[in-house]
Amino acid sequence: MLLFWQNGYEGTSIPALLKAMNISRSSLYDTFTDKQTLYIDALEHYRTIHAKNREILEQATSAKEGINRFFTAHIAKAYDTSLPGGCFVTNAAITVDSAKDKHVNTLIRESFYQLEKAFYTLLQKGQNNGEIDKTTQIKPLATLLLNVNHSINVMAKAGKDKHELEKMISFILDTYL
Q: What DSSP designation does 149 have?
């Protein structure tokens, strides 16, 4: 998973995968059929592991608190030097040839949908309990938060100052919530 996350599909060679996985070429093909299937399995595994990030939103008692906690954790992970950088899903979205790779494109769209839905549900909860004004359009706000999430991944990978992103989140929270 880490090789694909770091190098992308095209940038990850079969010999590099064999070395990293410490397996033979025949074992790779017997187990995964091909590189594409391994890539999809790695992306699905990543999505399963990182679904826990949405739990911060799902378990939050306050919209502002939940979104703040989510982005605090997200920024920390985006800048974690022990990880390849950015987000595997974001990196895949940037590099996927959606016309050729419909399965990967579907996984990416599902990931986007699930996170946007978690933001929307929490924002709706905030409106229902009076924390967010009833006139606030929460659907576009959920879409904005989804986009902020993925832009943080790109900015972190590009070396943007972490504190600037933290200030951006504070601005969003102060402005919209």
A: H
Domains parsed from the chain with CATH numbers = 2-176 (1.10.357.10)
Tell whether pTM > 0.85: yes
24 vs 1, 13, 21, 121, CA distance in Å?
17, 14, 9, 46
Following DSSP, what letter does each residue of 88-141 receive, concatenated? HHHHHHHH--TTT-HHHHHHHHHHHHHHHHHHHHHHHHHHHTTSS-TTS-HHHH
Pairwise CA distance, residues 5 & 14, whole Å: 15
How big is the chain, counted in residues? Answer: 177
pLDDT at 130: 96
CA dihedral sign of residues 75, 79, 168, 113 = negative
Percent of the chain topping pLDDT 70? 99
Rg (CA), the chain: 18
**Integer Cα distance of 6 and 63 in angstroms:** 33
